[in-house]
Specification:
Layout (H helix, E strand, L loop, with lengths): L2 H14 L3 H19 L2 H5 L4 H8 L3 H14 L3 H24 L10 H10 L4 H17 L13 H6 L3 H15 L3 H14 L2
Length: 198
């Protein structure tokens, strides 16, 4: 265990009031989760090797939030674990919302009417499209740390402004299937989208 890792773990022990053993166990669990993620074929599409993805993950708020939540769960503090994770998600939502609001109208995600037209093309009413968009923006924002090598210099708002009509169409389709509880169909839609990105 390197000194930086030890400092992070000690900070968690002090901040959360959990045992060192719980934090070490949570670290193993969290690393296993991100290691499994690193083998997802979508990682290769970003230009990361699994090792690079894992290295990047260690610096992200999502990794630290999951580590803290897992440590609290291991200590039997389920309610605190849920609250800690929800606080992280709320921070991410606020960041994504600010980035989305900063988009110019010339960007697809900054043009409400253009987004609604895409939704109508999929058979959604405007309200349904409006409900799906915040989740899509949050999903894009949470993947911001793992963006392709050529996009790593972009701000989150700049990254969001690069979403194309074809990409948004597929994301809306996937989000609507997920929202309807059609997880198998949503997974198939995501696979098709990922294969089309090659």
């Amino acid at each position: 265990m390197n000194p930086v890792t030890q400092i992070v773990l000690t900070d968690l022990v002090c901040r959360l009031g959990v045992s060192g053993a719980a934090v070490e166990s949570a670290l193993v669990t969290t690393l296993q989760h991100f290691t499994a993620e690193s083998r997802n074929p979508i990682v290769a599409l970003t230009g990361h090797t699994p090792a690079q993805y894992l290295h990047t993950s260690l610096k992200t708020p999502r990794f630290h939030a999951m580590l803290a939540s897992n440590a609290l769960k291991i200590e039997g503090r389920e309610a605190d674990a849920r609250l800690a994770w929800e606080a992280y998600v709320q921070r991410e939502i606020a960041t994504a919302t600010r980035a989305h609001e900063a988009l110019p109208e010339s960007a697809l995600l900054g043009d409400v009417e253009a987004v609604r037209r895409i939704g109508r093309g999929l058979g959604f009413d405007d309200d349904q499209t409006d409900q799906l968009i915040p989740g899509i923006v949050l999903t894009l924002a949470m993947g911001y740390y793992y963006r392709p090598a050529g996009d790593r210099h972009l701000t989150l708002a700049e990254a969001l402004s690069r979403v194309t009509a074809d990409e948004l169409t597929e994301m809306l389709r996937h989000a609507s299937l997920s929202a309807a509880g059609r997880t198998d169909d949503a997974a198939d839609a995501l696979r098709r989208f990922q294969q089309g990105s090659h």
